[in-house]
Amino acid sequence: MNWIELCVKILFLILTAFVSAYVVPWLKEKKLYDTVYRMVQAAEKWNRTHEIDKKQWVIGLLEARGITVNAYVDALIEACVEELDIRVGTALTYEEEE
Length: 98
Fold this sequence. Notes:
Layout: H1 3-49, H2 54-64, H3 71-88, H4 94-97
Helix pairs in contact: 1-2, 1-3
């Protein structure tokens, strides 16, 4: 095996390790956030015609998909609600809350 082949193999191993350690977890987290965000949007829309507890409805959907709702997922739900409120312009500013 010559030096070029060895260097290419080492570079490939390093790249594989990087992708496995950083890119794959980031993609999984991004997918989870997108899933939660879509469910929060669905809860907002469903609540227009049905009287529901939106957060419990989202939690039920997540659990039905096999996603365990822990403190991290709960924080994602809250972040998605806040982002949706900001996008539709219904979020309160700090001054309005006081």
